[in-house]
Design goal:
This protein is α/β, with parallel strands linked by helices and 111 residues long. 32% of the residues lie in helices and 27% in strands. It has five helices and four strands. The radius of gyration is 16 Å and the shape is globular.
Length: 111
């Protein structure tokens, strides 16, 4: 196996939630109808069986208040589905705080 592990920070795991099938279909060069019909072949939450079978662990770090890539529909859903397939998934939820230094947001971690 060439893949030892996978990690993602606020990863897009569900193409329905972001960026949306209308934009994804253009990027894939297919119609939205065709993408909808073939979504399980392209959507990360639906395409993780091979990785789970090979026992490739995944680490997901996601902001609890992500407005662009929602936690529940992406990292939460992938972690749930991956574990259900027998894979090892760790989800670390970063709780947004109001602390900033030099314009950078800092997070407290709740895993």
């Amino acid at each position: 196996s060439a893949v030892a592990c996978i990690a993602g920070i606020s990863p897009v795991c569900n193409l329905n939630s972001y960026p949306g099938l209308d934009k994804v279909s253009v990027a894939y060069g297919i119609s939205q109808e065709q993408l909808t019909a073939e979504l399980s072949q392209h959507n990360p939450v639906d395409c993780s069986t091979g990785l789970a079978t090979e026992k490739v662990p995944i680490l997901l770090i996601h902001d609890d208040n992500d407005k662009v890539v929602p936690l529940e529909e992406n990292s939460n859903r992938l972690a749930y589905c991956y574990r259900k397939l027998g894979g090892e998934a760790e989800l670390v939820v970063a709780l947004r705080t109001r602390d900033t230094i030099c314009g950078l947001d800092f997070f407290s971690v709740n895993s």
